[in-house]
UniProtKB/TrEMBL annotation:
Domain Plastocyanin-like per the UniProt entry, residue ranges: 76-168
Organismal lineage: Bacteria, Bacillati, Actinomycetota, Actinomycetes, Geodermatophilales
Entry protein name: Multicopper oxidase domain-containing protein
Region forming the signal peptide: none
Keyword terms, alphabetized: Copper, Metal-binding, Oxidoreductase
Region of interest (Disordered), ranges: 1-35
Length: 173
């Protein structure tokens, strides 16, 4: 009987890599070769400006959260045992995140766009922002205009699976 795991295709138990089906393998480039696209400058949020900034009011935010990212915790808590981060509809909310871990964390807020704050003012409008490792800090503002319960999590999926998730939950003012 043929080995079904190696046969591949619909209804089979597995597939073989394309290289095993008679396709030519290409050797890896020499270690000293560096692709041209890696010789440029790494963009920083300070160098990016929003073409259409968020319509944030003057003054100070209605609510602020200072969140330390450490290991797989946000503000010292891991999901599902984490408290929600309450907001009220219409509020101007500011999140400041400081990463004390050794890994970068791309933090994503569902249901909203936010404006990254930079040393030159208001930077890009995004829904995911990378917080660099070992002391990296990022602040963003958003308007609470989409009621519900929204995930706020690290987009490194293994971090999210280990609990690096909080809920942004709308309530009353």
């Amino acid at each position: 009987m043929a080995d079904r795991r190696a046969a591949g295709g619909p209804g089979r138990l597995g597939t073989r890599p394309a290289a095993l089906h008679g396709q030519r393998r290409h050797p890896a480039p020499p270690v000293a070769d560096r692709p041209a696209e890696l010789t440029g400058q790494l963009l920083a949020y300070d160098t990016l400006l929003a073409r259409e900034p968020l319509a944030l009011p003057d003054g100070a935010p209605d609510r602020r959260y200072d969140l330390v990212l450490s290991g797989t915790e946000i503000g010292g808590q891991s999901y599902p045992d984490a408290d929600p981060l309450p907001v009220a509809e219409g509020e101007w909310v500011r999140f400041t995140m400081r990463n004390t871990s050794a890994k970068w964390h791309p933090m994503h807020l569902h249901g909203h766009h936010f404006q990254v704050l930079t040393t030159i003012g208001r930077g890009p409008v995004k829904d995911t922002v990378t917080v660099p490792a070992r002391g990296g800090e990022v602040t963003f503002d958003f308007l609470a205009t989409n009621p519900g319960r929204w995930l706020f999590h690290c987009h490194n999926h293994h971090h999210m699976e280990d609990g690096m998730v909080r809920l942004v939950e709308y309530g009353r003012r």
